[in-house]
Amino acid sequence: MSLTLYMHPLASFCHKALIALYENDTPFHPYLVDLADPEARASFYALWPMGRFPLLRDDARDCLVPESSIIIEYLAQHYPGKVALVPQDADLARETRLRDRFFDLYVNEAMQKVVTDRLRPADAHDHYGVSEARHRLRTAYDLLEKDMATRTWAMGDNYTMADCSASPALFYANMVIPLDESHPHTAAYLLRLMQRPSFERVLREAQPYLHMLPREAADA
Ligand SMILES: N[C@@H](CCC(=O)N[C@@H](CS)C(=O)NCC(=O)O)C(=O)O
User: Fold this and answer.
1) Total-model pTM
2) Inside any domain, residue 140
3) Is position 105 within any domain?
4) Using a 6 Å cutoff on CB, does residue 52 contact ligand 1?
5) Is 65 part of a structural domain of the chain?
6) Which ligand 1 atom is at minimum distance from the Cα of 109?
7) CA of 11 to the centre of ligand 1 (A)
8) Residue 11 contacts by C-beta under 8 Å, 6 or more apart in sequence?
9) 68: Cβ below 6 Å to ligand 1?
């Protein structure tokens, strides 16, 4: 087995890469990085000084691949499987990348801004930034609601990389601003994502760590 994924089972961008690996039953070794452990943190930073996971190591090709979208592109290119996560057609591939960016930048990162602010000391909250992030998230929900009224998956009938990104982004965002009755099509889409065996497995594996999430509504 040549692939190692440096990850944490609670981290949303790691979920995205794990979903891609599980979708195609790609063999890999999961390497849990505990950033709270000084030794583990130092070795991870020595490998990738940006200190962000997921990070993929491929011994067969002797390379290191950071960034969740690039990891999925790399897997699609070098370890393709039954699910074409990046379509062959150039226009469809570009549209898939746009939707992948949308979920990462406007849903996942907005959600993370709200959640990580809850971990800050009482005198260091960024109320303005959190309020902006919540506004961005609501705008993203409204745009998605229109799209998901007529689509099964983010790109239509075919499951792609954009759905890998959507899964953890919407799962955690739904805890920050519930989709409930206001965005029924997006809520139904999240349910479909959660019923997909790849994401079901990721959530099952994250279960023992979910209590670590900062849930108190310090930003409400
Ligand atoms: N753009 C990166 C983002 C990766 C990222 O933000 N990872 C978070 C976990 S979801 C992380 O490594 N956090 C650790 C830290 O910030 O110290 C990607 O798509 O992989």
Assistant:
1) 0.96
2) yes
3) yes
4) yes
5) no
6) 6
7) 7
8) 53, 54
9) yes
CATH code assigned at 133:
1.20.1050.10
DSSP state at residue 79: S
Amino acid at position 29, single letter: H
DSSP state for residue 66 in the 8-state scheme: E
Ligand 1 pocket residue status of 41, Cβ below 6 Å:
no
The CB-side HSE value for 152 (13 A sphere, CA atoms) comes to: 7
Closest among 64, 55, 21 to 161, alpha carbons compared: 21
Q: Say yes or no: CB of residue 105 within 6 Å of ligand 1.
A: no
Residue closest via CA to ligand 1's atom 9 equals: 11
The vertex-131 CA angle with 148 and 149, nearest 5°, equals: 5
**Total number of domains in the chain:** 1
Closest by CA to 194, choosing from 167, 212, 172, 218, is: 167
- Continuous H helices in the chain: 12-23, 38-47, 68-78, 90-102, 109-117, 127-148, 161-176, 184-195, 197-206
For the Cβ of 147 lying below 6 angstroms from any atom of ligand 1, the answer is: no
68 CA distance to ligand 1 middle (Å): 9
Residue 171 lies in a domain: yes
pLDDT tens-digit map of 69-126:
999 999 999 999 999 999 999 999 999 999 999 999 999 999 999 999 999 999 999 9
Q: Is the CB of 67 under 6 A from ligand 1?
A: yes
* pLDDT of 42 strictly over 80: yes
Other residues' Cβ atoms within 10 Å of the Cβ of residue 219: 18
